[in-house]
Amino acid sequence: MALPGFNLPGLGIRSTSTPQVTGTSAPDVEQPSRREELAPQSEWRFEAGFIQSYSVRLVSGHAELFGVELAQNQTHNLSGLKGAVFTWQGCELEVIGEAESEYSAQETEYATEWINLHGMLESARDGASEGPRVLVVGPDSTGKSSMVRSLAAWAVRQGRAPTVVHLDPREGLLAPPSSLTAVTIVSQMEVDGWGISPMTGPSLQPVRSPLVYHFPYATPSERPNAFKAIVTRSALTTLNKLEEDPLAKQSGIIIDTPGGLNDPKSNYDMIHHIISEFSINLVVALGSERLYNDLNRRYTSKSPEDAIAVLKLAKPGGAVERDNAYMKQLRARQVRQYFFGSKESLNPHSHSIPTNDLTIYRAKPASSDAALPSFGAEDEDDYDPAATSTSSSNTMYEKVAPSLAMTGALIAIKFCSSNSEEATIRDSAIMGYLYVADVDEARKKVRFLAPHPQRWGDRALVWGTWPEAAADLVR
Amino acid sequence: MSALSPRGSISGTSDVAVDFEDSLRDLSRNDRYEIGNLTSIAREYTEYAQAISRVLENHIKTTAPNKKLPALYVLDSIVKNVGTPYTVYLGRNLYSTFMEAYTLVDGMTRRAMDSLLKTWKEPVPGSMDHRPVFPPEIVRPIENALIKAKTAALQNQRQVQQPPYRSTPTPPQYNGQYAVPPTPNQHEQYPQYVYGNSQAAPPQQQWQPAMPPPTPQQQPPFLSLNPAARPMIDVSTLRADISALISRLQMAFAASPSDQGLITQLHALLKLKQVVDSGAVPDAALQEVRTKVTALAAVAPDPRRSPQPPVPTPQWQATPAMQQPAPYQPPASVSQAYQYPGSGTLPFAQPAASMLNHTAPPLLAPNALNGLQALLANGQKPSTPQMRTAVPALQNMPHTQLNNVQNNITAAPTSNTADLLAALSKSGVLSSLPSTTPQTAPAQNSTLPPPNTSSTTSLLASLQSILPPSQNSTPTTHAAQPAGTQSKAAIPISNSALKTFRPELVQALYDNQPNQCSTCGRRFLATEEGRAKKQRHLDWHFRTNQRLADPNASRGQHRQWFLDEVEWISIPEFDPSTASAADTTAAATVQKKRGAQDQYIRAPAGITRLTCTVCQEEMKSSYSEELQDWVFTNAVYYNGKPAHATCVEEMKKPWGGGGGGSLAAALSMTGQRQRSATPESSLGKRKAEGTLAGNGARLKTG
């Protein structure tokens, strides 16, 4: 199909005149490579495993992966990713390696919707001092995170600095799982990720400084009040940051949420909380007619000044469910990458600390079914998730002595002193994570793996129930 | 480009040519200095004239359309300032060089190229030589080809107009493809007869388009012409229809300004146009809009017979640049041999609005200035359609007054003629114009049914009901901007606007940023700033790769702690890959304010550990991102020996306030020397390093 605007003469010249030498040659020569021709507005969907290597190379034309344009003749490693390489103009791909599933798809109406949404946001940013604040909601596996990625990547490509707020503790953004992250994105996104948080030394990936909060549960509904408190706090900081940075303010906010947030039973309590705390002015409901209708009824009937636009987008055909096994692997990889790096290799530091010097708070499981049996100690917990805020804030953390059960756990270092109030501990941002490599109960010492050689001083440490212990990080 | 594979080839010829090519590639606008520079290169290396000529020809052929003109100016400058042998080499392929570029560039560039061609027929200005720049046998074929193309386009245009004038209200079918309502273009049947001739012609016949090009709003100037094949066609014809209808109503309104029904209709239509222009109309609704517009066109008043004072100007000259569907562009320069009729073989449609009026929102301006043009045509004899050169009154007007006109026009809410007139007289431009203009006799529309106001308003009301409300009233602009400009149509936030594909959004991400980094795919604008940014970006890639390749640099890296809330708020994110030195220092100064802890000394080669002379504890070196060197953080030289900055700070405290002690003076000296980054400190550093190097040697031997 001839698309208006695409058959510009200059384009053909550019794409044919500079055949380049491959910058990074194919990693495995033995791997079978094959060429795939993609028609305009079609995509190459793949589900790549963690173990096998899987990579694509753009031979000709233009293509992007969730908004991030692929450079021609560069090999992009996509193992462990489920996604789609989309092309507006048509392209030829070279695919190397095996994936669990891969096929080219033509039903890509979602891409039109997404880029139109991007166009709407761009229109709202143009000339405005305060950009759009978008909340993306919808059930799991409807492409929310992918859309947030695309919107952010497109905005950056047009010179904006959107702030992405990631509120899904199951999967980290620039941080391990159990993190709720806010980050302003000013530089081009990575094809296979969000970049890297600050590190020493040179880095291939763009460095971004995230602000990280800690929500040590798998879903917000386990501790709705704690979640809300953290949302309030992060909204406060984020909006403050936008006041400091006019470009970021103009570019607006995009908020990604976990699917568990849209619970009709609670009357979308949490969605409403996010909307009011961040002063959201556009809600995008992905893949759920009911959610859209409920939200639309609730927010568009308001008076015109504070009406919030609600948009309904369909679930993309390529959105697949990520099963538990996959998610577990993904989390383990995120934890590993936090300490050891991905493209850049990082050296974590080992700290051996006497148990007496440690103050560790245990985030108690919210309900009996959420308690992981491996942690044992909390059998008596019979917590009522519908408890009032006072009781929940009183019982969220308890001080524990380091025990063997802690081995393999991820511990958050809070930006507050170890004897702070519980609410302070709950709401504080974190300066980093520790991995419990070893607990020597006999010699009363705990060996931590820390990303940084510097000690963290007298700061509160929180041992969460989430994510699950990663046993194989250090041997 | 491929013909000139770099360095490795035969001789020095290629080096000169490659350098020349590199400089050419950087040339993206009409930069006198750069062009002069390239010309002097060409003058110095006349022995490589052939290679340079080939590079230049090649570059003109292959470069992006927006860079063709500057390259052609280089050619022009070389042949005029250096002359032979370049005239010979470049003359050989001049026809193909020129014509290939000509077919690809937009109307503005074409006009510039026409002027260029004209100068080639003449001798070099100020030269003793009376021969033309290029011999006539080279220039003439080009001229002939251009004339041929234009004639063909003209005939094409005439053919389109072949369906004879019909006085029926039913829309005639053009080419059997799509219906065009009886818009005023019907009375364009004889415009070519007055071409180049100073016959009197009713003004509105002059400023109505003969046939709106397919996509006046969206089409990039150098798109290949294939309107029927494109899905946009429906929208664009509809748009053209609406524009035509609007101007018709405006004429009617000019005739009878008190007609309330007309005002309502105009309002509604302008709104409709805005919505359609913004592309926010779903396909299904478009069809409906279409039928209604057609129906409306049938009953709308047609003022085509309204008597107007004759204007003794050639028809083409009165064609305003503002009317966007204008099929041909009037010349930009005053003296101009050609005009550009039709859009047959050479597409000429282009956003002319930007030429004339950047400040007024294009949505209002076309209509407003359209009316203005008519008025001006009535009052004064325009010599060219360019507004500023058109009317002596406007021409001689100070710039501020012109702005005033524009502002007033912009302020006119409905852009109808009455408001326009009011605006103009307010700005004092029209005082010299005959005041009778608005009172011209009403349209003689005996062939049409009288306008049924009530029915048309209801029609329009129903039209509006099927359209999504346009929430964003940002004026729509032409999507076909030259690459790099960021203007785009506002898209209202609504579910219905989600479905239609808008190529301009993709274009903004790809084609408008043609300057791509081959390593990471990042794109940059084709502007001066974009190139500078890309340069910095490439430098950054280079630096990063260099440092990654250094085995020393990559050991011992670790992740930093996350920022706390206060730092996160106050430290602005910046993109190191394109940051200029100023940005970096700005970011660095934010981090500098941290006191003693942030003092450092550079690690002498081979030394990773030192002992603090104050507390006797070990100090470890680490790699500083900022300095790109190994440093000991929290360290200063204390009496020539390394120590923790904090320890020294502690030690200084008791004496700090003291006025005279020699120890305190010595201490403060040491402190200052380390803290300032002025040349003086480099002296100090050298000295300190000397002592330390001795230390290191001792460490090694010992």
Automatic annotation (TrEMBL), chain A:
Family annotation (Pfam families): Clp1 (PF06807), CLP1_N (PF16573), CLP1_P (PF16575)
Gene3D superfamilies assigned: Clp1, DNA binding domain (2.60.120.1030), P-loop containing nucleotide triphosphate hydrolases (3.40.50.300), Pre-mRNA cleavage complex subunit Clp1, C-terminal domain (2.40.30.330)
Clp1 P-loop domain boundaries: 138-340
Limits of the Clp1 N-terminal domain: 37-126
Domain Clp1 C-terminal: 346-468
Compartment(s) where it occurs, according to its Swiss-Prot or TrEMBL record: Nucleus
Binding site for ATP: E43, K82, S141, T142, G143, K144, S145, S146
The keyword DNA-binding is assigned to this record: no
Alphabetical list of InterPro entries matching this protein: Clp1, Clp1/Grc3, Clp1_C, Clp1_C_sf, Clp1_N, Clp1_N_sf, CLP1_P, P-loop_NTPase
Annotated SUPFAM superfamilies: P-loop containing nucleoside triphosphate hydrolases
Stretch list, region Disordered: 1-35, 371-394
Keyword Transport: no
Gene Ontology biological-process annotations: mRNA 3'-end processing; tRNA splicing, via endonucleolytic cleavage and ligation
One GO cellular component term noted in the UniProt record for this chain: mRNA cleavage factor complex
Biased composition (Polar residues): 14-25
UniProtKB keywords: ATP-binding, mRNA processing, Nucleotide-binding, Nucleus
Gene Ontology MF, one: polynucleotide 5'-hydroxyl-kinase activity
Function description: Polynucleotide 5'-kinase involved in rRNA processing. Required for endonucleolytic cleavage during polyadenylation-dependent pre-mRNA 3'-end formation.
Assembly: Component of a pre-mRNA cleavage factor complex. Interacts directly with PCF11.
Family statement: Belongs to the Clp1 family. Clp1 subfamily.
UniProt name for this protein: Polynucleotide 5'-hydroxyl-kinase GRC3
Record organism: Baudoinia panamericana (strain UAMH 10762)
UniProtKB/TrEMBL annotation, chain B:
Biased composition (Polar residues): 153-176, 431-443, 467-490, 669-681
Matching InterPro entries: CID_dom, ENTH_VHS, PCF11-like, Pcf11_C, Pcf11_CID
Superkingdom of source: Eukaryota
GO BP terms, alphabetized: mRNA 3'-end processing; termination of RNA polymerase II transcription
One GO cellular component term: mRNA cleavage factor complex
Biased composition (Pro residues): 210-219
Chain intervals for the UniProt region annotation (Disordered): 153-219, 300-336, 431-490, 663-702
PROSITE patterns xrefs: CID
SUPFAM superfamilies named among the record's database cross-references: ENTH/VHS domain
Domain CID: 12-150
PANTHER family: PRE-MRNA CLEAVAGE COMPLEX 2 PROTEIN PCF11, PRE-MRNA CLEAVAGE COMPLEX II
Protein name according to UniProt: CID domain-containing protein
Organism of provenance: Baudoinia panamericana (strain UAMH 10762)
